[in-house]
Amino acid sequence: MASTSETIFPASRRPPLSFRHVLFVYFAIAILPYLWSVTQDLEPRGPYITIIGAISIIGLMALLLQYALSGRLQSVTQYAGIDNGMRVHRRAGQLIALFFFLHPFLIILPRVAIAPQLVVDDLWLMLTSAESQTGLYAWAIMGIWVLLAVFRDRLPMSYEAWRISHGLGLIAVAILATWHAVTVGRHGVYNLWFDVMWITLCAVAVGTLAYTYFVRPVLQQRRPFKIVGLQKEGSSDWGLTIEKDGDFDFDFDGGQFVWINTSGNPYNRKEHPFSIASSPASLPKVEFLIRAVGDYTSNLDQLEPGQRVYVDGPHGAFTLTGRKAAGVALIAGGCGIAAALGILRQTRDLGDSRPVRLVYGNRVAEQFVFQDEIEAMGEQLADFKQVLVVEEPEQGSTDYCGQLDSTILGKTFDSEDRAQWIYYVCGSQGMVEAVVKNLRRMGIPSKQILYEQLSF
User: Fold this and answer.
1) Residues linked to residue 450 through DSSP beta bridges, in sequence order
2) Which end of the chain is more exposed for a tag (fewer CB within 10 A), N or C?
3) Which domain holds residue 186?
4) Residue 352 carries which DSSP code?
5) Cis peptide before 314 (omega within 30 of 0)
6) How far is Cα 175 from Cα 96, in angstroms, rounded to an integer?
7) φ and ψ at 99, to 5 degrees?
8) Does 23 fall in a domain?
9) 141-168 pLDDT per residue, tens
10) How open is the CA angle 11-16-18, to the nearest 5 degrees?
11) Do the Cβ atoms of 327 and 355 come closer than 8 Å?
12) What is the pTM for the complete model shown?
């Protein structure tokens, strides 16, 4: 059967917005309170103060929107996608943190030109005055939590402890910053409804985290899974299989991921995100391929068959559902093969007739997994080819040697219509960034590239 640009995957769920569209919507919503403030007809106080006021209002709204992006709310993720939502969360968070740091200095900046000898005294007075205390506390906490986020991988702190402290710290920032806005902010002083707006938005933001910590576990408790299989795959990975332990609805698309909680307690925050490696056709069983690279994943052998686990998901836009492309390109580094394998298995089960290419890289050959199954897909799919890339090949190996660079990508994707293919890239941050950059140099439009970095 000839390949076609019309996807055979039914659009059961509309593909979420692109990263740029999510970013645009995010800041479009963030600017709404400022537009409302303009209608209050307050006495002008000069262009500089007006600009600082606008940035302050937009910055606070952007901060409160952060909770909607990070709360895994289905009403948000179905449009934004959790992948793009978290990317916007990080990018916007960097801008918000920069503004928080600069905010007190921007307020005092005009004094530098008018009376520079009084700047230090004015700054000290502003930071120590009673009305500024809530803002000062929010400023200090934000600074600490930004440093914790930046140096998370270097801190002697577990992922679970970091995640909980991150959420609680930002709740404190939201409450303190909101209180600062309603007690010191010029617009709130003259308009009670402006204060009501900030308090309501803050309550919604805090409520989002309350839902995550207290309501979602109740829902997960009603949809338990159990472990039915655990085996070593290759030299570095574990194959984990879970199964629904009850009668409830659960469906997913190849390439999506879930958070898994194996503690036995849905209220325990010890949950970890893993890509689904199986096809929806395998339900009620769900398979995962997990690389042993951290404290939790290095102890997966302690899990036992029959053990109850809880699942939050599925999440992610790293799927073929509802998309159109002339061909499918899967580029996986290390344990990124899990998501690629989920997509590959679904294309096989649905009889996709388009050309499919898998570029699979590892440090050593012993880390490659499911090679018998993948090689068999050469006969099960209409047009399939796998390319293996090894950083440290054995003597006499016929695999490509080195990194997933432009040379390998150019040789693998050499068809005239390669710009109409859709490219799925999954792996470590460095690998993903390098591959995406090389694909763009090859003329692949950014809208045809989807990527997933193995980090949340």
Assistant:
1) 424
2) N
3) 31-219
4) -
5) yes
6) 15
7) -65, -45
8) no
9) 888 877 887 777 777 777 677 777 878 8
10) 130
11) yes
12) 0.78
